[in-house]
Amino acid sequence: MIQLLGLAGMPEVQAGDDLASHILAALAAQGETLRDGDVLVVTSKIVSKSEGRLTALADVDPSPFALSWAAEHNKDPRHVEVVLRETKRIARMDRGALIAETRHGFICANAGVDASNTGADGVLVLLPLYPDASAAQVRDALRERAGVDVAVVISDTFGRAWRTGQTNIAIGAAGIAALRGYHGEVDTEGRTLRATSVAVIDELAGAAELVMHKLDRVPVALIRGYAYPRPPAGQPDEGATPLVRAGDRDLFR
Amino acid sequence: MIQLLGLAGMPEVQAGDDLASHILAALAAQGETLRDGDVLVVTSKIVSKSEGRLTALADVDPSPFALSWAAEHNKDPRHVEVVLRETKRIARMDRGALIAETRHGFICANAGVDASNTGADGVLVLLPLYPDASAAQVRDALRERAGVDVAVVISDTFGRAWRTGQTNIAIGAAGIAALRGYHGEVDTEGRTLRATSVAVIDELAGAAELVMHKLDRVPVALIRGYAYPRPPAGQPDEGATPLVRAGDRDLFR
After folding, report:
1. What CATH fold (topology level) applies to the domain B55-124?
2. Cβ–Cβ of A161/B160 closer than 8 Å?
3. What ipTM was estimated for this complex?
4. B3-51+129-247: CATH architecture
5. pTM higher than 0.90 for the full model?
């Protein structure tokens, strides 16, 4: 059995905050202690806030391109400018939507720039610069403070092609393999399965959303009882990077 | 807290089988009984098998188009023919991959036609014709037999644009709203959230995959403790249909 538990009572995160301490305190307040093999799913927003990945609109001088798109679609040109600065490539710019490829290779609306629950008016939250490193940092701090070996997944809310609605997916990870592969394994009837790779960190991020609440302050979920795949021994932990499909292997860019 | 429980010990499903009976028997064998508000996630494969949605390759006469594509990519032309018969529109046909839009409007590899764990050699499993109706049937049968009001989600394993790896998503549902909306709601800081709709049945399907096992026989998961959104009172239950993005609203077809 797998258990999903939302961590309520986290404080408003400030730049420089130590997320591991906040997480351990929130767990203690709920009478929980971490165990080896637990998975912690942390929303990117509090990671970004702790890393100071914030931009005040007042400091932004929009480019002519940002001004023109913003005027056409009734948006704040400073907000558009911040989105463009977070963008490596624009995948689509149509009907008021700006679907961007971020420097990490993620394809999402507005390059992940977010104006809700940012902590102050006129402030935007940007995605963490190196989400895998952020996850590793939280994981290492939890091992130091609590002596536990856990996996950490950093989640964000993305839309998808073809399907309406958003889901939480993984943008960073540490201590867990992103994909569980069934390459060449044999099914219950003795046939070799076609190459199948399940993006388990995306499924964990989506599962965690079910105990988080967009409107409340539940930015962390504990997932217990999932025997997750580990990064291959003796090799670097690739985090969520394997989930980025290379451009030349993507039929829908 | 939310709990995820895989149902082991399900028998091999045959055409005409009553899935609700199988599910109740497997639950009883694990010492569990259903409760109001539980969610059952059922893999489409056993739904298809119970509905006889199977095709024997031996009965298939491939068209010239199927023969040509199969020869070029070293595939079984009869398999390709079955995929084409399940296809409303081909989204991409490139590098050996056939990404199809099914009659339901789902976009996925091979129109959801599957050759693994089909029950016999040379047999393909097709997606259920009306997955929402299939879900409603299981839900109604569980209410009749066990007197419980549960939600049923029918899942399948799909790839995605832009991200490697597959995840389980919902192709049918009953007794639950596909989307949880935050339209115009106010965040913790008093700002109005931009329109956000979370595809909760996809997140439930993905969560369920974590307790299913591709190689074992765990085709059903029980999810307990999730206060899911209900279909609006007095309106028809739309199942998973709201997740199909209309062609004219999709920037990535």
Report:
1. CofE-like fold (3.90.1660)
2. yes
3. 0.95
4. 2-Layer Sandwich (3.30)
5. yes
